[in-house]
Specification:
Strand order of the largest sheet: 1-5-2-4-3-6
Distance between the termini: 48 Å
CATH topology of the largest domain: Barwin-like endoglucanases
Number of strands: 7
Largest sheet: 6 strands, mixed, barrel
Helix content: 25-40%
Structural class: alpha+beta
């Protein structure tokens, strides 16, 4: 009888742990509107373009970004304008990358800000290829206007589209 009670309690605890983990993953992946709204308070609005410094044969995996990571065209990353570095938590070599919510053309995506650069006038952010394709699948536009970029605090973000 004691064994059955212990087994039942153990089973209930395992079921509770699994349900909490699943609920946490579902919450993090989708992000509630309250979290998205809270992040958009310090937004910067401007134009976005795409950059891809990768040149096959030059450096395996592409050049390093400001955070020290290699540029990855298939990740959800971006470079912020150098003058916005402080607003986004000081993106710098060897430091942890920062995160941002990017909104444009009715779409939202969370990206890792792992690079900075002297972007062209009016541009506030340069997307890597994957992020740009989210907003411009054919890559024909070149520049996306009225992009809203909001810094996100912390580093526990799931990168990619926000549903």
């Amino acid at each position: 009888m004691t064994f059955r009670s212990s087994a039942a309690i153990c089973g209930a605890l395992v079921a509770l742990a699994v349900s909490v983990t699943v609920a946490r993953c579902e919450t993090r992946g989708g992000y509630s509107n309250a979290v998205v709204d809270a992040a958009s308070g310090d937004a910067v609005v401007g134009a976005a373009s795409m950059y891809n410094p990768f040149k096959p044969g030059k450096e395996e995996g592409g050049p390093r970004t400001a955070s020290g990571e290699r540029y990855d065209p298939s990740a959800w990353t971006a470079a912020i304008k150098t003058s916005l570095r402080r607003k986004f938590g000081g993106v710098q070599f060897g430091a942890r990358p920062k995160y941002a919510l990017v909104e444009a053309a009715g779409k939202k995506v969370i990206v890792k800000i792992n690079d900075v650069g002297p972007l062209r006038p009016g541009r506030i952010i340069d997307f890597n290829e994957r992020t740009m394709r989210h907003f411009d699948p054919s890559l024909e536009r070149g520049v996306i206007k009225d992009v809203r970029v909001s810094p996100l605090s912390g580093d526990d973000w799931t990168l990619g589209p926000v549903g």
